[in-house]
Amino acid sequence: MTASERVPDAGHPSVVAVVVAYNRKALLLESLAALRTQSAPLTAVIVVDNASDDDSAATALAFWPEIELVRLTRNTGGAGGFATGMAMAIARHDPDWVWVMDDDTIPTETALAELLVAVDQPGVVLAGSRVVWTDGSDHPMNTPRRNPFAKKEELREAAERGVTPVRSSSFVSMLVSAERVKEAGLPIADYFIWNDDFEFSTRMLRGGRGLFVPESVVVHKTKARANTDADPGARFFFEVRNKIWLMLFSHGLNPFEKAVYLGSTLLRWFRTFRSSRQRGFLFTQLRRGLVAGFRSRPRLNADALSDLGAVTEAVVKVEAPARRAA
């Protein structure tokens, strides 16, 4: 029996999985195969194809005709893809939870079931899996950030349940409350790539608790077991611009947290430059990112995704409560 046929019974949480795909057809099929055999039922699976040109969309439908395929006419980046997928999941299905991941994320069979066990307690709005590389070791790119403000009672209770309170989480297997998304808004599409999951998860967790669930395991099939300090090339522009946007405009972190995080960011940038073989090019991206970060701000998702028809309508509908509360 496939996941799409194992619809949750009444009284059980409904979950829609969202996979954002771009030109990684083989990995997308592997991810879908893993979703198809989850031990916990899925209400639906949505694949957001970010204008791939490698037949990812057609191949995915041929493999699993029951998936809901959202084909975008332009590449909106990971940030736009996750905003799109969450919006469509909530607008179409009104689920309890949305489970998001990239197309190079391969969940183990009980990954979702372990997340659902962990979030079955008051106040929890988000949970993330343990992310390993292909050799089974923890992936340094997706290390969870413990919540330094967690109270002793919360820490004790979490330890008894085998989980850890966190302050942020990664889109490489994140289970997030649909109600909380409607309250606080979708990922910011204009981030395009980098820092979008950090900004989104910290914003979600200003109004609830987040957990790291080590018993929920997914494999992140990146080309190398590298962390964010690895030489980023042209993507360093997004790292710099988005960090500036996060510090200036995001409500995810309080002022003290922003000061601490800024210090760690500057140290990380120093390490990146120190280990880079193209420092001149990185300096150019640093300058571009600083200019863009201070001279602009991210648009509303309704504007950034305004040309996408049904997607735009879903984004506006899902974010309406957050807009009214702002």
TrEMBL record:
<dbReference type="InterPro" id="IPR029044">
    <property type="entry name" value="Nucleotide-diphossugar_trans"/>
</dbReference>
<dbReference type="InterPro" id="IPR001173">
    <property type="entry name" value="Glyco_trans_2-like"/>
</dbReference>
<protein>
    <submittedName>
        <fullName>Glycosyltransferase</fullName>
        <ecNumber>2.4.-.-</ecNumber>
    </submittedName>
</protein>
<dbReference type="GO" id="GO:0016757">
    <property type="term" value="F:glycosyltransferase activity"/>
</dbReference>
<keyword id="KW-0808">Transferase</keyword>
<keyword id="KW-0328">Glycosyltransferase</keyword>
<comment type="pathway">
    <text>Cell wall biogenesis; cell wall polysaccharide biosynthesis.</text>
</comment>
<comment type="similarity">
    <text>Belongs to the glycosyltransferase 2 family.</text>
</comment>
<dbReference type="Pfam" id="PF00535">
    <property type="entry name" value="Glycos_transf_2"/>
</dbReference>
<feature type="domain" description="Glycosyltransferase 2-like">
    <location>
        <begin position="18"/>
        <end position="177"/>
    </location>
</feature>
